[in-house]
Amino acid sequence: MLDLGRTFLQSVERSPHALAIIDGDRRLTYADWYGIIQRTAAGLQDTGLARGDHLLVVLQNRFEMATLHWACQFLGVIVTPLNWRAKPEEIDYCATDAQAKAIVFEAASAEAVADSPVAQALPRIAVGGVAGGTIAFERLQERAPEVPILEANSDDYSLMLYTSGTTGKPKGVPRRHRHERAAALAHVAQNLYGRGERTLGVMPLYHTMGVRSLLAMAMVDGLFVCVPKFDSGYAVRCIEQERLSCLYLVPTLYHDMLSWHAANGGDLSSVTKLGFAGAPMHDALLKRLNETIKPQLFVNHYGSSEVYTFSIDQDATKKPGSAGRAGINTRLRVVKLNATSPDDLAAVGEEGQIIADLAGDEAFEAYLNRPDANAKSIRDGWYFTGDTGYFDQDGDLFVSGRVDDMIISGGENISPVDIESVLSLHPAVDEVAVAGLKDERWGQRVVAFVKCKTETDAEALDAHCKNSDLLNFKRPREYVFVREIPKSPVGKILRRKLVAGEYEPATPAVEQQAS
């Protein structure tokens, strides 16, 4: 199998004059970008980085971030990106865990890097003229290599992503070139990308969705438009001005973009392919997106950093909530919630834990330096995702939530996602998240946290649930009206914050009991 450096070369050779990347006023063809990438790889080499070393990168989605990602693929260095909002202690932990040989930062991350003792002991590559570095990014490009740098092979590690670490220390997920290339090829195939697609590079390049968009565009000689920090108006203008053809975003960003578009307008007609991942998309947002953009293809992609694709549904509106069937490189099972063996299968329609075969081409092998996490998640060659779900009678997978998010009320297992989908269809509801709060009688009671777009109350929402097909025992027993639903930087609902009371009540604060 080709490594990723040679994969990029394929596009340079096929379409040297095709536009490859845009960042503000910077517009580069594949041939021009390749020259910069090669010089950057030579500069990293001169800084002391060699094949197998980790380069810690704390940048937003900008030209330099994408360039460094590709330079590492040619040099055989393991690009190790962190959230640009990372705190000093997170940088300390990850730099130590990965034994990073250098760090790259910009203005947005400069203070955290300055306050990180481990980072201060490393070579520090400064982007955008920011102070505090030992070398400027531009200095990396002073020397063109005498012969093209092609140091990596398909078995070398390409990338290490860190999981969000919402329940503890983040876990490093090392992925080889062949894992990454297989995942990118699958992404192209599963989204039916053609030659010359154009996408919005807004999902962060420290997240698997952002990396997949970057690699997939190179595979089809396509265009990656950098968006350093999501802004709905800027995103709509990019789509309109650059005639972008495909989007791959988390539901939260679609929600925000549609809200901006409804108020301000904009031409979205160039977009023919939509994909989403990272979190379930509720029925109301599915309908709004489909009606506004009218895509030819609407893909629900379910996956993770560890195993890029679990399943896909290429017609997301046909059976709302369905995550479809296993991806082209994957085998899936649903096992009983308390299963310790991959052979302890749940029945059709029975909610259990979703697991994936680690023999798949996209699958990682193990977490870095985390035997505890490996013991919990890897059993007999299968990856236990920690997600709950079930197969329906047609063989389609439904993802119902996280094992840790499951609400157990009066001895019944209740998934938040089903309830959220029903409530999302109420015309007054903008966003909703459901969690279980401690209850002396029931163990946990079902509570809906609601962000409204128009005025409503608990009685109206409860009547809506009663008139739906939601089973009575799943109905929320309490409604809490909030200003915002707390989310991670990539749009995942942070239920633990709701349970802990870390939210701002709507004004006037309304917390009402359902009958």
From TrEMBL:
The keyword Cell inner membrane does not apply. Residues 10-355 form the AMP-dependent synthetase/ligase domain. GO terms for molecular function: acid-thiol ligase activity. The keyword Transmembrane helix does not apply. Residues 419-492 form the AMP-binding enzyme C-terminal domain. Keywords: Ligase. Pfam families: AMP-binding, AMP-binding_C. This is 4-chlorobenzoate--CoA ligase. It comes from Noviherbaspirillum denitrificans.
